Amino acid sequence: MSAAVDDVVVRALTADDLPDLERMEVALFGAAAWSPESLAAEIVGPGRWYVGATVQGELVGYAGLWFDGYDAQVMTVGTDERFQGRGLGRRMLENLLAHARSVGAAVVLLEVRVDNDAAIHLYESLGFERLGKRRAYYQPGNIDAWTMRLDLRGDGAA
Ligand SMILES: CC(C)(COP(=O)(O)OP(=O)(O)OC[C@H]1O[C@@H](n2cnc3c(N)ncnc32)[C@H](O)[C@@H]1OP(=O)(O)O)[C@@H](O)C(=O)NCCC(=O)NCCS
Fold it and tell me: What are the residue boundaries of the N-acetyltransferase domain, all occurrences included (predicted)?
């Protein structure tokens, strides 16, 4: 609870970050974690924008966006448990939204587990609205997902 959060930097991810990403991915998402191969392909995939949050040089969070030429999709966001609740998730998502605006995305979409109160709170505080529910979207466990959308059209915010 007392970890420092000074010296936070949000920066682009590189292949050098993959060992840290793999460790955090398993710790945060367990059986639903992306494989190392998927992570490696994802951070350099077409239209992708992946950032990490460092605290005093240590990578402690990551987030990614996919822009397909019209819409953007939040692919993932995660903060190392030791640093959750200290504003890093918000910083990373704000970076993704700024990128989505800069490339002209009309809307930003995402899915989130219906039982993920922290993430839902964060998304709603950034302006996302619930669109609908996808039944048994997450495996294992048949967990439902909310689909959420942030409309950037006519949005003059920075
Ligand atoms: C969701 C997650 C990325 C948020 O990251 P974070 O760095 O803790 O986020 P922040 O510190 O910026 O907090 C964002 C908001 O969520 C709130 N929040 C954090 N933990 C919370 C909790 N357990 N319950 C409710 N709200 C919570 C914070 O209060 C904050 O809101 P506020 O600014 O109004 O106080 C983080 O909890 C996480 O990595 N979870 C595991 C992976 C995951 O579920 N990712 C999302 C997949 S869709």
Answer: 8-153
Going by alpha carbons, the residue nearest to atom 23 of ligand 1 is 118
Does any ligand 1 atom lie closer than 6 A to the CB of residue 143? no
Give counts: helices (H), strands (E), the chain.
4, 7
Q: Is 81 a catalytic residue?
A: no
Q: Is residue 156 part of a domain?
A: no
pLDDT tens, residue by residue, 16-58: 999 999 999 999 999 999 999 999 999 999 999 999 999 999 9
Q: Which domain holds residue 63?
A: 8-151
Domain count, the chain: 1
User: Has residue 158 been placed in a domain?
Assistant: no
Compute the distance between CA of residue 134 and CA of residue 147 in angstroms, rounded to an integer. Answer: 7
Q: Which atom of ligand 1 lies closest to the CA of 53?
A: 7
